[in-house]
Amino acid sequence: MLEQSVTPMKTIIEPFKIKSVEPVRFTTGRERERILREAGYNPFLIRADDVLIDLLTDSGTSAMSAKQWAGMMEGDESYAGAKSFFRFEKIAKELTGFKYIIPTHQGRAAEKILFTLVGGPHKCIPNNTHFDTTRANIEFTGAQAFDFLNPLGKDPVAIADFKGNMDITALERFILEKGRENVPLIMLTVTNNAGGGQPVSMENIRHTKAVAVKYKIPFFLDACRFAENAFFIKKREKGYEHKSVKEIAQEMFSYVDGCTMSAKKDALVNMGGFLGMNDDETAIRARNILVVTEGFPTYGGLAGRDLEAMAQGLEEVLDEHYLTYRIRSVEYLGEKLLQAGVPILQPPGGHAIYLDAKRFAPHIPSEQFPGQAVVCELYKMGGIRSVEIGSVMFGRTDKITGKFIPPALELVRLAIPRRVYTQSHIDYVIEAVIEVYQRRPELCGYRIVSEAPLLRHFTARFEPFNA
Ligand code: F0G
Q: How far, in Å, from the CA of 5 to the mean position of ligand 1?
């Protein structure tokens, strides 16, 4: 256990040594202004090589361990029945308890298969908050996606332990209203990425399960960040303080009928995912789709070496020294920003800090994208890449009135890649954010000069109003 092996020191250190390094490239402020201009003020269009600290996402950006790299050499690349698959399957089954583990190339491929099976016109799928690929895969089938986040989770300044919880009353009302025959699946996303990386309690998982059982509806987890969620349960929920994170994760999975998993998060790999489930008939149908879209059932969309890395990552992520450091480094970033008065979504989430751009730049109206203004300034100031989650991503224009309709929150996500940056990188980020905050009256709004009809945030080009 952790307590027996820690030093008496208070500082929480990175629980690893660095064996292989990758240089970061420094640029001057003038260069960054040019780069940003050429990228149409959209961080997605900046080359990664021009970024000093990349906080665009925690997905697929983990540093792999020496054991994972060693596993890559052990990868069995046989088309059928590869030994790497059986190692991965054994570890994933032990963790989740599911009868079937179906490997996919990433999370959205698992979603695609699942919703091809259960979606379709008139179907309604509830979640605490759907991630955008989950929503897109549901809507692609003609079904509709609904979010039932508890009211506290929607308040950016409320401090609560489990702001990712499902609103159980609203969920049950929804099932009665739509009719259980139109609700083929209940999903729960742990941790709740779109809602600030906030965890879901075990009690809430049990309550959601009770509703699923009452109405005989299958219940699935979107399990991308299951280990971070399990760690929060250990730290915050009564009765779990003495359980291991692995036992807690196993209990979380024990309440559900299946999961979609993006291994690019809590399996510590650069590519991978899986679909897990217990139902025999659905699993056969899922594998039939898998063969057409991903690959043979013992490799899915992956190479044997990827399966090895994923198997190893699923074990390493449960290490409590790792999780202590992981959650603390995100919390540390949040704490220092709060101390300097920077408005953030509270409390800090598991994988990211979300700046509250509405309070950060209150002089910029939503239709001029306050989040984008902060994102651009962070890049200009410190070479830091972040992402806007606000009016650029979710804002829309009413077709009849032509009026702009902003989303409830204007956020900027600073997602922390796993095991990649050290404390001094984080200190540097803190300094840069505080510097931008102190100069906030100088921030100006942006307008869109070109955009795609769907998911415009990836490719839109902007212009600052002061240009
Ligand atoms: N579900 C959640 C909660 C996610 O955060 C993601 C990805 C997915 C599903 C899809 O997984 O990328 O492997 O296909 N989130 C990334 C992010 C992209 O930046 O938050 P994928």
A: 34
- Copy the structure tokens of residue 218: 């299958």
- pTM, entire model: 0.96
Pocket test for ligand 1, best of 111, 133, 275, 353 (most atoms within 8 A of CB): 133
Which of 316, 338, 362 is the C-terminal boundary of a domain? 316
Protein residues whose CB sits closer than 6 Å to any atom of ligand 1: 57, 59, 106-108, 131, 133-134, 189, 193, 222, 224, 262, 264, 273
Q: What is the pLDDT of residues 60-69, one digit of tens each?
A: 999 999 999 9
Does one domain contain both 295 and 248?
yes
Per-residue pLDDT tens for 326-342? 999 999 999 999 999 99
Q: Among residues 316, 347, 380, which one ends one of the domains?
A: 316
The closest residue, in CA terms, to atom 1 on ligand 1 is 131
